[in-house]
Amino acid sequence: MEKNEKEKKEMSIEDLPGVGDATAEKLRESGYDDIMTIAVASPKDLAEISGIAEGAAIKIINAARKYADVGNFETGEEILNKRKEIKKLTTGSNNLDNLLGGGLETQSITEFFGEFGSGKTQIMHQLAVNATMPPDKKGFDSDVLIIDTENTFRPERIVQMARAKDLDPDQTLERIHVARAYNSHHQILLAEKAADMAKEYKIKLLIVDSLTSHFRSEYVGRGSLAERQQLLNRHMHDLLKFGTIYNAVIAVTNQVSANPAVFFGDPMNPIGGNIVGHTATFRIYLRKAKAGKRIARLIDSPYLPEGETVITITESGISDGEK
Ligand code: GTP
Ligand code: MG
């Protein structure tokens, strides 16, 4: 199992001044289970959760900050070193890998958006299989977490794709951990709990399929838009934090809205608008084409040129298709 360098194991939260057993328990229940999480918490949130006064919460946070290495400026060299740890995961299609500069990057969120049947869920299945493959096959030799919000995870598809890559289907399935999210709140909690799984397994890929479907159906109408965007924003940042701490790929899917009156004007706009767009580092727009083919377009990348390419979906999974 890979060691997580960022983890501060030396201190437990009970060691913080003013944190007794009862407070510690309340904090843990709410996911504040290590020094780093408390160090970056807001005093208001911490006070609300643990039932202590805000002044006491500030003291706890300040103490946590002393021990956790947060809020420091990093030199360009340190950032470069961290970027050197970035690994790339193959999509199964050389065309799409090339468009992405080699594959999906760790420490970033990659969003696949497109209409129903455009292949988003198929690509998520393929990424899950690929992540279990060894590095010489452009995988991570890692376990995978999938947050499935639409009940579209199909183990049978994993078996087909694993066979096509000459992998043992049972061993592959054993490394893919799926949690069904029943509503947006549950989805947010599962993303927060992903860190617990990462302490037990080597997780280098976290998938959320779909990122937005629950938010879309639960927060309907203009009045709830601000709240929806705020929650989605927090969720995206939780995901990005996981990707950064564990050097993992985050892959999410997003439908395009068909109803311009409810969403953001352009009928081909992904749900969640700017919030999702600004937090996702890579965005790929998928369109259906003939005979199992899909057109993948890279949008708004920070340093890669925009462009598009063709991928193919078959029983074996995602590939370039026949030349
Ligand atoms: P929504 O979740 O509804 O927004 O769609 P999506 O983008 O997730 O679509 P999904 O990935 O589920 O794509 C479904 C499509 O993939 C099907 O309509 C088929 O065209 C294709 N597909 C899925 N399984 C197979 C397969 O075994 N063989 C082939 N040839 N195509 C498949
Ligand atoms: Mg889907």
What does this structure look like?
- The strands form two sheets. The protein has a nine-stranded mixed beta sheet with strand order 5-4-6-7-3-8-9-10-11, with helices on both faces. Strands 1-2 form a two-stranded antiparallel ribbon.
- 41% of the residues lie in helices and 19% in strands.
- With 323 residues, the protein is of the alpha/beta class.
- It starts with 20 loop residues before the first helix and ends with a strand.
- It folds into two domains: 2-68, Orthogonal Bundle (DNA polymerase, domain 1); 83-320, Rossmann fold.
- The protein has 13 helices and eleven strands.
- A hairpin with a 4-residue loop joins strand 8 and strand 9 (293-299).
- Helix 3 (43-50) crosses helix 4, helix 7 packs across helix 8 (155-164) and helix 10 (184-200) runs parallel beside helix 12 (225-245).
- The protein is globular.
- Magnesium ion binds at residues 120-121, 150, 152, 209.
The total of beta strands comes to 11
The domain tally reads 2
**What is the CATH first-level class name of the largest domain?**
Alpha Beta
Strand fraction equals 15-25%
CATH architecture of the largest domain: 3-Layer(aba) Sandwich
Q: What would the average pLDDT be, to the nearest integer?
A: 88
**Cα separation of the termini:** 39 Å
Q: What hetero molecules are in the model?
A: guanosine-5'-triphosphate, magnesium ion
Class by SSE composition: alpha/beta
Q: Order of strands across the widest beta sheet?
A: 5-4-6-7-3-8-9-10-11
CATH fold descriptor of the largest domain: Rossmann fold
H and E order: HHHHHEHEEHEHHEHEHHEHEEEE
Q: How would you name the CATH homologous superfamily of the largest domain?
A: P-loop containing nucleotide triphosphate hydrolases
Global morphology:
globular
DSSP helical segment count: 13
Sheet of most strands:
9 strands, mixed
Helical content, roughly? Answer: 40-55%
Uncertain spans: 1-9, 260-267
**Rg from alpha-carbon coordinates:** 20 Å
